[in-house]
Amino acid sequence: MSKVYVIFIAISLILGNARAQVSQVDMRIGSFNNLRGKDISREDNNLKSLDLESYKEVASLESAISPDKYILGPGDELGISIIMGENLTLPTKVTPTGDLFIPSVGLVKVSGQTLDVARKKIKSFIIENAFPNAKVSIALLNIRKFQIQVVGAVNSSGFIEISALDRLDKIIFASDGFHPLAKEFDISVERGNGEKEKINFLNFLRQGDLKSNPTFLEGDIIHVPFGDPYLNSISLRGHIENAGYDIIEKDESLLSFLNRSIDLINETNLMSIIVTRNENGVEKIYNVSPKDFSNFILSNGDIVDIPRDDGIMVNGFVQKPGAYAYVPGYLAYNYISMAGGNTKDGSINKIKIIHSNGSISRNFNTILKRGDVIIVERSTINTLAGNMSILQIVASLLTIYMTYLSSSK
Predict the structure, then answer these.
(1) What is the CATH number of domain 145-224?
(2) DSSP-assigned letter for residue 349
(3) Using 50, 70 and 90 to split pLDDT, how confident is the model at 384?
(4) Are 311 and 370 in contact (CB under 8 A)?
(5) Is the CB of residue 168 less than 8 Å from the CB of residue 199?
(6) CATH of 50-142, one of 3.30.460.10, 1.10.1020.10, 3.30.1950.10, 3.60.10.10
(7) 8 Å CB contact between 232 and 250
(8) Rounded to whole angstroms, how far apart are CA atoms 105 and 6?
(9) Among 356, 286, 283, which residue's Cα sits nearest to residue 326?
(10) Residue 293 has what pLDDT?
(11) pLDDT tens per residue, range 166-215
């Protein structure tokens, strides 16, 4: 009897669980049937919102689209309104082959045509082939997206998905930015139709010139060339985020370079920028103030140091040149130590200290003040012998001596 009772309870539990699952399915099916059973008329507001759903996907625009300039392509979505005895609204997309399929009418080629031309063509096609007495209106509902190729001096080259209205700056951002050695002023674009175009992107950065920040079409290839670090580069150091090498345009001023290239951080001081330049084998130091930024033309090989606000700059032949925080009472020697000490080519006994008032001192035991600049110069031996080893120097002297002895016999 107890066995029968246990079996009865087990069967009841199984059937109860199954009924619960069926009830949940019935609830879903019932909801679906209730939705299908509603009498939805053509004029129902919900139906209208479904017809115009694509409006919600329209990308943010910098301005209204000009119908005589916007070029249609595969993926663009158009809305066609046909008014006659019964109103007919047809959202339809341009197919991958460039055609527009209009139900009950047919196919019409629109890819590669301006929106203005395509609208006139579609309207004539509908009236001539299906609805001769209809009033036809066409609107662009949504903008297509497509792949474009970016190669060269960007941090992530390859194919980028863009819309037909995206400009070069957005494409470069999607490519994780320019490589430090990118020639931003010499970008080339190979258009899908075979035409080639040169773009100086710096004109957009400087003046907001939209011609230097164009839009693109399917099949276009953007090529950003690398600059030659030995021909047109400078070194950027100091209290900034993006220290390193950078390519400069011919006759580019310090002001133009600073505006487009540096990322400032807290306590960066632009009141006095130090530019180190090699002129005919002689190293010269320029202390450039803001009033001279626009007139100071950068040259290949320049070293531009951006100091820390009221900090100490350590340049020249040291292990870690750059900007260092001011510490009251510290000597020039202490700051050179903070910079890792002098290199094998530099000498602690040959330093130049440029004070914020313009005066110069050369003692490494000098107590520094805020804004001072230390330059560790090349040692005398290195200046005379360059990178020759002691053995090479001895061998050279011995050769000279032997030559002298031979000539004196």
Answers:
(1) 3.10.560.10
(2) E
(3) low
(4) yes
(5) yes
(6) 3.30.1950.10
(7) yes
(8) 71
(9) 356
(10) 92
(11) 999 999 999 999 998 999 999 999 998 889 999 999 999 888 899 999 99
